[in-house]
Structure prediction request, 155 residues.
Amino acid sequence: HRNFYGSAAALLRSLYESYTRGKWLYLCASEDRLSKFSDGGDITMKDMIDDLNKLASEYPEKDRFSNFHKRLWPTYNDFTHTGIKQIVRRNTSESIEPNYEPGFMQEILQHAGLLGIMNGIQICLIGNNVELAGEFLERLSEFTASTNEMNRRES
Prediction:
């Protein structure tokens, strides 16, 4: 039995980054910035997050995206770039080998599920399918409720 927990964790950053970049490109990118981006220019995640927050400034949840980013981006980077969170899970006191907590893969799957639902909502909105986006929002509510319940039971 082989486990690829580290690889699965590293891929979370790609899921999150594709969501953020896609949302930014669709909702925020001006012609100048789109041209810069398509020419390989550096548009940082911070720039994209700032633009997305400006877009949502009139809404009560305006800081939700920024808070989500601040909380998760360092962890996603850590797993992708073999930071301390990745290293400690690949070592035991006696050897270099996988050392993942029992619930680690469940946590990775929860993050992947959340990012998948968030991507689904955006795709529906881009396609002007508000009804289907609403169904994804319902799934998001169900998903977060079940995830919260599972986390409560485990603690």
DSSP finds seven helices and no strands in the chain. The first helix runs from residue 5 to 27. Residues 18 and 143 are 21 Å apart (CA to CA).
